[in-house]
Design goal:
Pfam families: DUF5996. This protein is of the alpha+beta class and 310 residues long. It folds into two domains: 9-133; 142-300, no CATH class. Helices cover 30% and strands 21% of the residues. It contains seven helices and eleven strands. It has helices spanning 13-33, 96-109, 142-163, 200-205, 263-268, 272-291, 295-298, and strands at 46-47, 51-53, 66-71, 76-81, 86-90, 174-176, 181-191, 208-216, 226-232, 249-253, 256-262. Strands 6-7-8-9-11-10 form a six-stranded antiparallel beta sheet. Strand 4 (76-81) and strand 5 (86-90) form a beta hairpin. Helix 1 packs parallel to helix 2 (96-109). The chain is globular and about 55 Å long.
Length: 310
């Protein structure tokens, strides 16, 4: 199997928009039924051998322990409880409104009842339209969804490998249903005072100094898939630092700078995995170096912190 198969946004944009809203519905269930973690780590999905999972949740809200999984090989949504009850339904040919209705029905069928405080999209163009009324988004191309999962799986392992090189506080590798990207974040431990006007999501996400690394599938603002990294807060002179490979670049975004390696440039490299890892490492050296992190002290060569281990 090709490490990074072709993934032009235009080939699956309608499917992506539908799947993104499916993910937000399940993500809001996860948010309502899980124990809150720092930086919203309780909210994202994790990659599985067949798709995505919320991981087990419940009890905190009076529900049985349950999970919701996207099977992106069999193209079904599965709701299961720890006592063996399960319900599932097919994903293709379903509008967002239909998906929302069937998801709630599946939850009810296994004895799970979740109250979604805001049952409409978050930070999307149709954020004022309830999921229950969205019959517009109804595209689902199984071939492209399968490819999306295959790309996620490759990037997930790359980020796991990269995360192993750092001994400090590190987020899990997780897939955000808000922005539909997969990411892993390193922390220096320094507290960051957010502006009073910052929204609650931003305040908690960036309450500490970070260098973050990830991959997104593209959107209207940047219409192609790409690997990325950013440092927050952004240190002075960040965008003057070199990046690897040569095709990587700094771009301006939302008043700051984002390190970007376009997916197609990584695909074209003789060793795509090595190209992406070198990109992440160069972006880390740029951000952590400019921000004054103890790079040597936080290093974890080969995933080992004990110098006596081989």
């Amino acid at each position: 199997m090709e490490t990074f198969p072709a993934m032009p946004l235009a080939d699956w944009q309608d499917t992506k928009e539908t799947l993104h809203r499916y993910a937000q519905i399940v993500g809001k269930i996860r948010l309502a039924a899980s124990v809150r973690r720092n930086h919203w780590w309780n909210a994202p999905f994790h990659v599985t051998g067949r798709g995505l999972t919320t991981r087990p949740m419940g009890q905190v809200d009076g529900n049985p322990i349950f999970s919701v999984d996207f099977d992106l090989v069999g193209h079904r949504l599965l709701v299961a409880t720890a006592d063996g009850r399960a319900a599932s339904f097919a994903l293709p040919g379903r509008s967002v409104a239909s998906f929302y209705e069937e998801t709630l029905r599946a939850l009810d069928g296994v004895g799970v009842h979740v109250d979604l405080a805001r049952p409409w999209p978050f930070d999307l163009p149709d954020s004022d339209r309830p999921f229950a009324e969205d019959t517009e988004h109804a595209s689902y191309d199984p071939v492209m969804v399968m490819r999306y999962w295959q790309v996620l799986s490759q990037v997930n392992l790359l980020l796991e490998e990269f995360a192993a090189r750092f001994s400090g506080k590190t987020s899990p590798v997780h897939h955000f249903w808000h922005t539909f990207d997969i990411a892993c974040t390193r922390f220096s431990g320094r507290v960051v005072e957010q502006p009073a006007a910052s929204d609650p999501v931003t305040r908690e996400a960036y309450s500490r100094e970070v260098v973050s690394f990830g991959f997104w599938f593209g959107d209207d603002a940047f219409p192609e898939p790409a690997f990325y990294s950013y440092t927050a807060p952004e240190p002075e002179g960040l965008a003057t630092e070199p990046l690897l490979p040569a095709s990587a670049q700094w771009i301006e975004q939302r008043g700051g700078h984002l390190a970007v390696l376009r997916y197609d440039d990584a695909r074209a490299d003789a060793d795509p995995r090595a190209a992406v890892l070198s990109f992440y490492e160069s972006a880390y050296q740029a951000g952590a170096g400019r921000a004054g992190w103890d790079i040597a002290g936080l290093a974890c060569p080969g995933g080992v912190t004990d110098p006596r281990l081989p």
